[in-house]
């Protein structure tokens, strides 16, 4: 050990100077009594020239008088020091020092970041994390938000006017709504409109397709689970979809596919307005409006023992029955034109033969099938208007189509034309989902990776935010 370290004072000073961060102590009169070389250099001197001087003379912006007077520490504050002809900001902690009687005798100032470049890098990282958090919050809000209102429901036929009237009437009510309709009739769109028109519109809209969840995972998905609830569970646990719908609307699509064991728990939640996560002992209060939908005969399922009768009466307070497309043929042409505008063909039109064929067809897949049919037609269209010959054979099978007297026009570059059609289709889908890539990928039934690749291929811009229905 060096001889000069025989003095405890010199040893103490050597320890202070070895620290990479600034340390300073001033007494109750703000006189600097201890300081290390790092802090002294920030004040424009060295240890010898700084010791014994009033801190306010060295830094007029010091907070020492405030901290010593009120005795309260200030942590993580930004300290401004004039250096090299400019003002630099540093993160500083100010801690009052007390004697054995509790009286404040001075203050310790601790500068965390002495390198302006280091501080700028930290600020850059904080700003990046803040933007990332904002992005995730926006994505979560977009994911749990309704995107459609009554105006999105296309059709002015008598059956659809009746549906819209029921939506307006039921939206203001707090009771559960059961939506009945075949596949592709617009059950999810109706649920969106009910939420948007309700007094819960500012809350979340959580949509769950019960048929898409494996039975063994259903309870964990719907009710959530506590930390360590089972072997493959997340360490931090998981919030269930019901909790996410708190203060908003929970939409259970295809409710006929809920397993019986989960039906019991769902009924209890509806009766008690409380939810208990798997593996948890305490419950949580929840407040949500329930909307359910199915294309199945629930009463037949009850008779077969596949659906609980008590749950059926709990969810079936208000009912909306959606008509199949074949029951409203006058809506087919407005729907078709609307769909064409969505897939990037706003100026396309139909021949009389095409309209007659579409109106005569039964449409077992309803609007969803109409959407796919029109995509097919635009890819096979050879004239200025979509003709019956451009429709799939299943649609025109029962309609007599007059022979075409002129040969169809051919596209000289089929690949380029198909690419243009696909680009327009993707652009329309993104616009429909407000630029949300996740929702668009779900609607198109492709992976996000595939969708990102196509967007990059065609140079289509998107919001990059993280199951929308086809407008009806």
UniProtKB/TrEMBL annotation:
SUPFAM superfamilies per record: Homeodomain-like (SSF46689), P-loop containing nucleoside triphosphate hydrolases (SSF52540), PYP-like sensor domain (PAS domain) (SSF55785)
Ranges in coiled-coil conformation: none
Domain of life, source organism: Bacteria
Domain annotation Sigma-54 factor interaction: ranges: 153-379
Classification via SMART domains: AAA (SM00382), PAS (SM00091)
Annotated InterPro entries: AAA+_ATPase, AAA_lid_NorR, Homeodomain-like_sf, HTH_Fis, P-loop_NTPase, PAS, PAS-like_dom_sf, Sigma_54_int
GO aspect biological process, one term: regulation of DNA-templated transcription
Keywords: ATP-binding, DNA-binding, Nucleotide-binding, Transcription, Transcription regulation
GO molecular function, one term: ATP binding
PANTHER family in the record: PROPIONATE CATABOLISM OPERON REGULATORY PROTEIN, TRANSCRIPTIONAL REGULATORY PROTEIN
Name of the protein in its database record: Fis family transcriptional regulator
Biological source species: Desulfovibrio fairfieldensis
